[in-house]
Amino acid sequence: MLKKILIVYAHQSAGSFNAAAKDAAVKVLTSQGCKVEVSDLYAMKFKASATAEDVTGTVKDAEHFQYGEETMLAWKEGRLSADITEEHRKLSEAAVVVFQFPMYWFTVPAIMKGWMDRVLTLGFAYTSEKRYSQGIFKDKKAMLSFTTGSHESMFSANGINGDMNVTLWPLQNGILHYCGFQVLAPQIFWPPPHIPSESRCSMLEAWRTRLEGHASFCLNVEPDVTTVHWCDCSH
Amino acid sequence: MLKKILIVYAHQSAGSFNAAAKDAAVKVLTSQGCKVEVSDLYAMKFKASATAEDVTGTVKDAEHFQYGEETMLAWKEGRLSADITEEHRKLSEAAVVVFQFPMYWFTVPAIMKGWMDRVLTLGFAYTSEKRYSQGIFKDKKAMLSFTTGSHESMFSANGINGDMNVTLWPLQNGILHYCGFQVLAPQIFWPPPHIPSESRCSMLEAWRTRLEGHASFCLNVEPDVTTVHWCDCSH
What we know:
2 copies of one chain form a homodimer.
Chain A: E1 4-9, H1 17-31, E2 35-40, H2 67-76, H3 82-93, E3 96-102, H4 110-119, E4 141-147, H5 164-177, E5 182-183, E6 187-189, H6 197-213
Parallel strand pairs in A: 1-2, 1-3, 3-4, 4-5, 4-6
């Protein structure tokens, strides 16, 4: 059986560096024998806000609506909205999840936070007993792959923004590891708009090389990677 | 002139503890002579996702759409969507901004992240020269006020979730302080659903007392706070 990879992708433009990074991942991982699915959140017009509409039928307690409890119940009873159920399927089947996004305000864009809020359902993705090292997704891997708006020096331990590892803590520990994911080192693309075109190409090349090194993501299929140049990616 | 306070509020239910905390703040601060505005994000069906629709008229570069650049330009030219412009007005007029929310996945819910992504527009809320101590909102104060799903011990430095101060860093430093806000100590309501009703009442009482102590939020109007009990708030 082919290993499946899910890429949760959030950029508005097919001409963006994020799109190029996503496309490169699809190409490399597919060539290695993985089956890759992409949740293109903006293209899907993915609903970001956690509301009672995520539950079909009657909610248990409309007056004191509690999203976590209501959606857990709906999940158990097969009453979650179709878009959440479909993301559950993708996530269940995936061995690896890659989140590809431009960092907005030191974390993921709201549309991707909405994916996390709505898809990582209580019961499905975690319980109070099953979290962190005992987490439900402990056999899965996850990675953040993102572009920044600031230079690397600003995110050093002495940088004006503080250490990037601290910035990523709530995402990597609080969300991914909480659900059990083995968190792979983040792929950080320092600000594509502020560097020369050749540097953007080098970053993409390094990304492809890194993914090729992750043959363990997929079955042991002989790599057959087509070299595609993304140097025309202007952002 | 009355000082204005903006409460950005995100909970789906008027029967929630978050609603009670918001209502208590409105009542206390109004009694102290402030003018309080509330952005009730779920009630407003606030759009969370940052898209080209936030710009009216033609975008500069549709093929390589860059949200930050396009919305800065639209802001300068008065072409931002009406909902963003209205939040800009509220934010401009406010001396203090309180964010009231249930913590979702170690940060704000997606709908509130959407407020941050869309309202804290490049140019309006920050520039590369005007940030942190030189930030545009350096004469304003901001505070996070939120409920948790975990007990306090889990968020201690040795707790399973790690130190709450680290969890809050991207929000408090990366968003609020970045825009210049003087960040007030957070108001943390440890998990209301997991504690006795009397403890919930005590937390609300402490919140009211804290707000009464912030007379500097408002003009020096003699406090005339009506004591309202929220002990009937079951969540």
